From TrEMBL:
Major localization class: membrane
Transmembrane segments: 48-66, 72-90, 219-237, 257-283, 626-646, 658-678, 690-716, 728-747, 759-778, 790-812
Superkingdom of origin organism: Bacteria
Domain (P-type ATPase A): residue spans on this chain: 108-202
Key words, A-Z: Membrane, Translocase, Transmembrane, Transmembrane helix
One Pfam family, short name: Hydrolase
Species classification: Bacteria, Bacillati, Actinomycetota, Actinomycetes, Bifidobacteriales
Membrane topology: Multi-pass membrane protein
Protein name as it appears in the record: Calcium-transporting ATPase 1
PROSITE patterns with a match to the protein in the record: ATPASE_E1_E2
InterPro entries in UniProt: ATPase_P-typ_cyto_dom_N (IPR023299), ATPase_P-typ_P_site (IPR018303), ATPase_P-typ_TM_dom_sf (IPR023298), ATPase_P-typ_transduc_dom_A_sf (IPR008250), ATPase_P-type_domA (IPR059000), HAD-like_sf (IPR036412), HAD_sf (IPR023214), P_typ_ATPase (IPR001757)
Length: 828
């Protein structure tokens, strides 16, 4: 603590040192405990102990027990996928842990009749505290004395105009003093202050819901019920094929039984899809980062594609938060005591500059000064000044020749002589156009003796000009909003400002195209969520919106089954951004708002949003395409496993075969296809459409392999007598058939093939069949080059499989069409 410079003399002595110590010991100081709802252990546990990891890990262990490590390479996917998940959530945890609305610094308090500086955390309940220009309010308080204190509460309320505060007014932590100063008494501290309550709500961890992950998890849950009993049955059936458990154990054939069972189980799990989804999200995030868009939660990339409702915060999104001087409208009106001739525009502009050039001009004053400085105006003669007062609503100067007054038009016109209905109409028209309108009045002659001590507006003053200022609309706002309209995304502007002003800005940026935007004062909104949802369907612009109402608006849109994105930059937006399906913060936003948003537009450019949504659509549409590839493998693996159990035959291929074929016809091609350009809008029913493709193809591949395995041993006489060698040859043929079927499926997924997609299919087909000829590859993956009798068997099997494939593609969809789940499936 240190004693500070002398402030204005006051009668109050403040708290004594003893009282401060007692309050601090009672926990009534300004300390806020920082914690999030997710510990490191929770994050690791949630990502390691998943259903997917459990199935794959168990399968990998079973294979390793047999000693065949080559057949266990599929287990590496656990490490990669888990690592991505943990890193993503740790990043979110670090962001949340740093979350703080209040800026920690030293503050001046009045104790024992003295002014001393204390740290933010040492402020106690009941302290008398000085709030000076430029300082952030550290705790909720009530004003005891004020010397023109003006606060910026936009981070809390969304209201972009600064607010003058009088004695007895409440002020809230998180607001910032723009001008003047005040002595205040602390009424709420620490976790009980307004800013701390907002922070606490914002810090609650919320996982982004992903349709892709939900679909994959649905499949995994279904497969869990199937995998465990099927795995047991496969092991039992494979042991039976070699003469029973006694023979299997004595000869070591149990190893082959376990490996065969795992081949069926691993094939049923779309392990590559889980990994590819995570990688695709990460790559989309990297691409967006190159355009100054930070994706803080990878799953939110997918949410971008599903957004059909975008709530825009006006200040910082549609406008850039700055005010500019637009125009000066000379009125050409002269009063009876103002007979010096016509109004000189240069004199009016000079007076306007001097009127705005107070010690601490507010945002409007700064905009006027900036605009006039660009026009070459500088300090003029000011012999006396009456500064702006929120009570008077006007300011005034005396320049040695005349008294000039500037302020709220309706206030000034009500206090001067004459009928000014026409001017008031002009003012209202300009205000309805989104302008902030000020009136300049003048009266020639000397200022009265009590001009500065007892300021009054001279009734003989003459209105000479209207000053129009407006918030600066982002240059990219109109074009960006037009893009969203074309894409079927409903945009609404939600602001703490006057609804008429916000409605005018909405009109300027053509928020609703050619239609007039419908605006409403949020104070008239119903509290009931159901009623609110109905009201919102007919509203485009909402003004005077409170932070809790923003959150309620998002909840109401959710009740209407909308996928909601919310943009913002103030603390008042944090709760709504967190509640939305997709929270988007501007780069210049408050730290609390950026911390809870899934996406941050680093350079605060609204025009990046189409890129963000387009990238999300690309991910969703492409992942739907490649998910079909992975689920084909799930379907045919389940069908083959079931066929093996029912017919008691050896499993038709090895785990390494499915690894090889899956890598070349599913994994690597899917990775490339997932990165291809795709602007298709999101269509509900992801899982249905994927299954509508995967089931027919999977059944075709499964029946092809089963047909080959059943028929070839009957009609073909192998040139080897050993049953083990015959099985190896049959598995070699099936590996080739599986590769051929995989290429067929890839060709269907990659359509149209008259572009680079066709070259992609041919390339992987060549690599796949060419790999059989490369000895190290063939040895590792147990591939066999067909020659002689095996070549004939392979040819017959390929023709048979092609016929089965074509028949299944025609018949299975017809059978599916009578299944209730698939009746209303929408095709992509």
């Amino acid at each position: 603590m240190s004693e500070s410079r002398t402030m204005p003399l006051i009668e109050e002595t403040g708290l004594t040192q003893g009282e401060v110590i007692a309050l601090r010991e009672s926990g009534l100081d300004n300390v806020v405990k920082a914690s999030t709802s997710r510990s490191l252990i929770d994050i690791v546990r949630a990502n390691v102990f998943t259903l997917f990891n459990g199935i794959i890990f168990a399968a990998m262990v079973m294979v390793l027990i047999t000693g065949s490590w080559r057949d266990a390479v599929f287990g590496m996917i656990i490490i990669i996928n888990t690592g991505i998940g943990i890193c993503t959530e740790l990043k979110a945890k670090r962001t949340l842990d740093k979350l703080s609305i209040l800026v920690a610094s030293d503050y001046l308090v009045h104790r024992d009749g003295k002014d001393i500086e204390v740290p933010h955390n040492d402020i106690v309940l009941g302290d008398l505290m000085w709030i000076r220009s430029g300082e952030q309010v550290p705790a909720d308080a009530q004003i005891v004395h004020t010397w023109g204190l003006e606060l910026d509460e936009s981070m809390l309320t969304g209201e972009s105009r600064t607010v003058r505060k009088g004695e007895g007014c409440d002020i809230f932590s998180g607001s910032t003093a723009i001008s003047g100063m005040a002595l205040v008494k602390v009424t709420a501290i620490g976790e009980h202050s307004y800013a701390a309550k907002l922070t606490a709500q914002a810090k609650v961890y919320k996982k982004t819901v992903s349709d892709l992950n939900k679909g994959i998890n649905t499949i995994l849950k279904f497969m869990t019920f199937l995998v465990v009993p099927l795995c047991v049955l496969l092991i039992w059936s494979q042991a039976r094929t070699v003469g029973g458990w006694n023979v299997a154990i004595s000869t070591g054939e149990w190893r082959s039984a376990v490996i065969s069972a795992v081949a069926g189980v691993v094939g049923m799990i779309p392990e590559g899809l889980v990994l590819l989804t995570s990688l695709n999200f990460a790559l989309a995030a990297i691409r967006l980062a190159r355009k100054n868009t930070l994706v803080q939660e990878l799953e939110s990339v997918e949410t971008l594609a599903r957004v059909d409702c975008l709530n825009l915060d006006k200040t910082g999104t549609v406008t850039d938060g700055t005010i500019r001087l637009d125009s000066l409208e000379l009125l050409g009106v002269r009063g009876p005591d103002d007979m010096r001739g016509t109004v000189n525009e240069h004199d009016v502009r000079q007076a306007l500059f001097d009127l705005s050039n107070e010690g601490q001009p507010n945002g409007t004053g700064q905009a006027i000064l900036s605009g006039l400085r660009e026009q070459g105006f500088a300090d003029g003669t000011v012999e006396a000044r009456v500064p702006f007062s929120s009570a008077r609503k006007w300011s005034s100067i005396y320049d040695g020749n005349a008294v000039w007054t500037m302020g709220a038009p309706e206030v000034i016109l009500s206090q001067i002589n004459g009928d000014h209905a026409d001017i008031l109409k002009q003012v209202n028209d300009l205000a309805n156009d989104g302008n902030r309108v000020l009136l300049v009045a003048r009266i020639y002659g000397a200022a009265p003796d009590d001009y500065e001590t007892d300021p009054k507006l001279n009734p003989a003053s003459c209105p000479v000009a209207l000053v129009c200022c407006s918030e600066h609309i982002r240059a990219d706002a109109e074009e960006t909003l037009a893009w969203f309209r074309e894409q079927g995304v409903r945009c609404r502007i939600i602001s703490g400002d006057n609804p008429v002003t916000v409605g005018a800005i909405a009109r300027k940026v053509h928020l609703t195209g050619e239609h007039e935007p419908r605006f409403m004062d949020a104070r008239e909104l119903p509290a009931d969520i159901t009623e609110l949802a109905q009201v919102l369907e007919n509203v485009d612009v909402l003004g005077r919106v409170l932070p809790d109402q923003k959150k309620a608006i998002v909840e109401a849109l959710h009740a209407g089954e909308h996928v909601v994105a919310m943009t913002g930059d103030g603390v008042n937006d944090a709760l709504a951004i967190k509640e939305a399906d997709l929270g988007i913060a501007m780069g210049n936003a408050a730290p609390a708002t950026k911390a809870v948003a899934q996406v941050v537009l680093v350079d605060s450019k609204f025009s990046h949003l189409p890129d963000v949504v387009a990238r999300g659509r690309q991910v969703m549409a492409n992942m739907e395409r490649v998910a079909s590839l992975f689920l084909v493998k799930t379907v045919y693996s389940a069908l083959i496993s079931l066929g093996v159990v029912l017919t008691q035959m050896p499993f038709p291929y090895l785990p390494r075969h499915i690894t090889y074929v899956g890598g070349l016809t599913i994994g690597m091609p899917a990775f490339i296809l997932a990165l291809a350009p795709n602007t298709r809008r999101y269509i509900p029913g992801f899982l249905k459409r994927v299954l509508h493709f995967a089931v027919p193809c999977g059944v075709a591949v499964g029946l092809s392999i089963l047909s080959t395995s059943w028929l070839l041993p009957i009609f073909m006489k192998w040139n080897v007598q050993d049953s083990g060698a015959q099985l190896a040859m049959l598995r070699g043929v099936n590996a080739i058939i599986l590769l051929m079927m995989g290429v067929f499926v890839l060709a269907r997924v990659a359509k149209p093939l008259h572009s680079w997609r066709g070259i992609l299919v041919l390339a992987f087909a060549a690599i796949g069949f060419g790999g059989v000829l490369v000895k190290p590859v063939a040895n590792f993956f147990a591939l066999v080059v067909p020659t002689g009798q095996m070549l004939a068997a392979t040819t017959v099997a390929m023709v048979l499989s092609a016929l089965v494939f074509l028949v299944c593609l025609r018949l299975v969809p017809k059978i599916l069409s009578i299944v209730p789940y698939f009746k209303k499936t929408r095709q992509s």
